[in-house]
Specification:
single chain, 178 residues, alpha+beta, Methylamine Dehydrogenase, Chain H, 2 domains, 4-stranded antiparallel beta sheet, 12 strands
């Protein structure tokens, strides 16, 4: 707290109010935070693991909600699903004909992955088997973003063609174009 310029005199009053809150759980958390901040103990971080993921540069990566799996996409036209703790490759997702630029898990479930490519398609895959479930056709230019809705029913894609599309995850059919 002494070294952080963001904690001005004005903000210190607010922090003290939060710390002295009647909520005992909040108070406990803030007391632990204060102890940690005041200890001024330096934290050392070390290299955990180096993964040789792809033969060409990566474009993006994403974790599932629990953090036990993550995916990487690459200029080599593939995505790879990884076990986070072991650093082992679980599956290679092959099928795009150009750079895989964007990818996402259908969090919180984590049983599907969406990928978007410069080949103008998006694909939905099974996280458990690496199987291709659907290829989504309809964009006129590169797909640069993809995201599932919180219920895992729809997936949205955004493209350089200045459109966003919503797709039904179960069927792979286009639901709407924005």
């Amino acid at each position: 707290m002494f070294e952080e310029p963001m904690i001005t005199e004005k903000r210190k009053k607010h922090i003290k109010i939060l710390i002295n809150s009647k909520n005992s759980f909040q108070t406990l958390i803030f007391q632990e935070l204060i102890k940690k901040l005041e200890s001024k103990k330096s934290q050392d971080f070390g290299l955990f693991k180096t993964l040789r993921a792809h033969v060409m540069p990566l474009t993006n990566c994403a974790f599932n909600k629990s953090g036990d799996k993550f995916i990487t996409g690459s200029y080599d036209r593939t995505c790879k699903i990884w076990d986070t703790q072991k650093g082992e490759e679980l599956f290679t997702l092959e099928g795009h004909k150009n750079v895989v630029y964007t990818m996402a898990f259908n969090n919180p479930f984590g049983n599907k992955i969406g990928t978007g490519s410069f080949d103008k398609t998006a694909k939905i895959w099974s996280t458990d088997t690496g199987e291709l479930l659907h290829t989504l056709y309809g964009h006129e230019l590169e797909i640069v973003c993809i995201q599932f809705d919180p219920q895992g029913v729809l997936v949205a894609t955004g493209s350089m063609d200045k459109t966003a599309k919503l797709w039904d995850v179960a069927t792979g059919k286009e639901y709407a174009t924005l």
